[in-house]
Design brief:
The chain has 311 residues and is mostly beta strands. It has one helix at 162-167, and strands at residues 2-5, 27-30, 34-35, 38-47, 52-54, 59-70, 73-75, 199-200, 213-217, 220-223, 226-228, 241-242, 262-266, 269-271, 275-277, 306-310. It is built from one helix and 16 strands.
């Protein structure tokens, strides 16, 4: 989702009111790959072509009194941990994705029911957005998929209200880091078969990792390269199986995709000719059940993130 807004400048306000900073970190020109985190107060910031700076802790805010030029890559993709899929042969639930800096809460898939009928072992439910799928039923019930990350102060359906929020809250831009993406939920384990000494349910897939938060604030911001905060894909659930011959173990649920993060660009001279992305990751596929075992549910795709342009 992309929001554009032109916040008013009150009488008597100067460029300093736009939080370009004091330039105390001087000019920073990045010529080699490395990490970039926290708050930088530069006169001029540049990432040269062919160079990638990774936002490893999930949050980066760059101020510059002159300009910010990204000819290489600023990458905050996949920095908020997804949930772990349940292990095989447990019928267990997948774990929730990491809340990280917030996100949108949804329920994972529900594991298949546990009818005592070898010919009626049902599949696990698919996960909701960014949530893990449920494990398929063997003779025993499959586990429930994990949820996405925890609730933040802002929900995706209310994102449009940020236009008003941003227009009068220059000193609160850091608060928006609460909108960063969340990790996807892990998939539930498939249920065991009729002979639990040899038949096992497949393990659930792991949830994808969520994107982080990047804000670039300067009188001039140019992106010829890429600024990224994508969620990563959930992994596939494993097939139900057997230590010797395949029987009726349920398949594991797929992991949910990680949600995209948040990118904020604050500048009266804004050129985003390059790549700007906060896409959600894809959910993993559910594992197949063997013989009469139910298949695992697919993980849900991650939510798209938020891109805000303030000119």
């Amino acid at each position: 989702m992309v929001l554009n807004t032109d916040p008013p400048i009150a009488a008597g306000e100067s460029a300093g009111a736009l939080h370009y900073g004091d330039g105390s970190d001087g000019e920073l020109i990045r010529t080699a790959n490395g990490t970039e985190n926290g708050n930088l107060y530069t006169t001029r910031y540049e990432v040269q072509a062919g160079v990638t700076r990774t936002v490893s802790n999930g949050i980066l805010v760059i101020h510059a009194t002159e300009e910010i030029v990204i000819d290489g890559t600023l990458d905050a993709s996949g920095v908020i941990a997804g949930g772990t899929g349940a292990g095989k042969n447990t019928g267990g639930d997948g774990s929730p994705g990491g809340g990280g800096s917030g996100g949108w809460f949804v329920n994972g898939g529900t594991g298949g029911a546990a009818p005592l009928d070898r010919n009626n072992h049902v599949a696990g439910d698919p996960g909701g957005p960014s949530a893990g799928g449920g494990g398929g039923c063997g003779y025993l019930s499959g586990g429930r998929g994990g949820d996405s990350g925890s609730v933040s102060n802002y929900s995706q359906p209310d994102a449009a209200a940020l236009t008003t929020f941003l227009s009068g809250a220059w000193d609160s831009v850091y608060d928006l880091s609460a909108l960063a993406g969340t990790g996807g939920g892990g998939g539930g384990s498939g249920g065991m078969g009729t002979d639990d000494s040899i038949n096992y349910g497949g393990a659930g897939g792991d949830g994808g990792d969520g994107g982080g938060f990047v804000a670039l604030i300067a009188p001039k911001v140019v992106v010829n390269g890429a600024v990224l905060a994508d969620g990563t894909d959930g992994t596939d659930g494993k097939q139900g199986g057997n230590n010797s011959d395949p029987h009726d173990g349920g398949g594991g649920g797929g992991g949910g995709g990680g949600s995209g993060g948040v990118l904020i660009f604050v500048s009266p001279k804004l050129d985003l000719s390059g790549t700007v992305s906060a896409a959600g990751g894809a959910g993993g596929n559910g594992g197949g059940g063997l013989n009469d075992g139910g298949a695992g549910g697919a993980g849900g795709d991650g939510y798209a993130g938020l891109i805000v342009q303030i000119n």
